Amino acid sequence: MTILSILLLLGGFVLLVAGGEALVRGAGSLGRTAGLSSLVVGLTIVSFATSSPELAVSTGAALSGSPGLAVGNVVGSNIANILFVLGLTAIFGALAVRLQLIRADIPVMIGFSVLLLVLALDGGFSTGDGVLLLVLLVAYLVALLLYARRQQVHGAAPQVDVAAEDGEDDDGGPGELVRALRATTLRSVLTDLVLVAVGVALLVGGARMLVSGATDIAEAFGVSELIIGLTVVAIGTSLPELATSIIAALRGDREMAVGNLVGSNIFNIGAVIGVTAVIAPQGIAIDPAAIHFDLPVMLATALVLLPLAFTGQSIGRWEGALLVALYASYVAYLVMAAAHHAALGPFSVAMMWFVLPMTALWIIALVGYEVGLRHGRRQRLSG
User: Fold this and answer.
1) Please, what is the Cα angle at 83 between 317 and 56, to 5 degrees?
2) Percentage of the chain lying above the pLDDT 90 cut
3) 238 near 43, Cβ under 8 Å?
4) Which residue spans traverse the membrane (predicted)?
5) Confidence (pTM)
6) In terms of CATH architecture, what is 3-341?
7) Are 285 and 87 in contact (CB under 8 A)?
C-alpha cells in the first residue's frame, strides 16, 4: 500500500459524494417538473441517482476483473442502506412510512433480495440472470409510475416544493442564483440536465479511483476484495443516500427519505447486479462467503424493515439506534473474521444466541401490540 492508494481512495469518496449530490439535485428537480409525488421521486429519481456510485463501482470492478468487489459492494451497500443509513437518519427524527411502502415497495425489495440469493446458489450470476433482474426492475418501474399517475389524476399525489428543496430563500446569495437559473421551465430543465451530466462524470471518475485504491489496500493487507467491498467501498458509495436522506428528514420530507433507501436497494439488485452480469465477459463469480453469510444478512435486513415500518407506520429514534447497533455488530464481525481474532468465537456465540433472538422477540412483540391496537380501533369504529 502506498500514499497514492490512500489518496485514490479518499479522492474517490470525495468525487462520489460531489457527483451524487449534483445528480440528486438535477434528477430530483426533473422528477418534480414531471409532477411526481415526493414518495415516487424518492423511490425512482432520487434513489436511482444516489445508486449511481454503486453502478459505476460494480461495473468498473467487473470489467477490471474484480467480481468479488462488484458483488461485495452491492450487498454491502444494501446492508448499509437499511442498518446504517436508515438507522442514522431515523435518529435525527422519526421517519414516516406510507402504506404504499408497507404493502408494495418493501415487499418488492424483499422479493428482489430473495431472488438474488436464489440466483447466487449456483456460484455466480450469468448473463441470463442479469437480463431477468433488469426485466423485473423495468416491470416494477412501469407499475409504480402507472400507480403514481392514477394517484395524480385523483388528486392524491402531493407535490414537492421545488423552492424549498433547492434551498431558495429571500435573503439573496445562492437562492438568487437558483431563482435566476430556474426562471422558466426550459431553463430549469436545462440546469437540471447540466447537473445530471456533471454528476455522472464525477461519479465515473470517483468510481475508478475508488476501485483502484480499494484493490491496492486489499492486496497490501491480505484482506479479500469481498470484505473491502462489504465495508469501506459499501459505506463510501452509500454516502449520497446518507446525505440525501438526512437532508430530506431535516427538511420534514420524511417520505422521500425512506423511499430513497427502499428504491436504492431495489435498483442496486435489479440494475447494478443486472447490468454488471450482462456486461461482465464471463458473468460474475461469487465468493462462497457471500452466499453463506453476506447475502442471507442482506435478506435479513430487508425482512426486518417490514415489521419496523408496520409499527405505527413510522421508524422511531430508538428503532434507528437499534439498526445502527446491528450494523456496528455486523462490521465488527467482518473485521474480526478477516483478522482471525480470538474474540470472534465468543462474539459470534453472544450474537447468535442472545442479541439476535432478543431483538427478534422484541420486534415480534411490537408487531403483536400494533396488530392489537389496530384491531381494537376497528372494533370501536364498527361498534
Assistant:
1) 130
2) 9
3) no
4) 79-99, 106-125, 131-148, 189-211, 226-250, 262-284, 290-310, 322-344, 350-371
5) 0.77
6) Up-down Bundle (1.20)
7) no
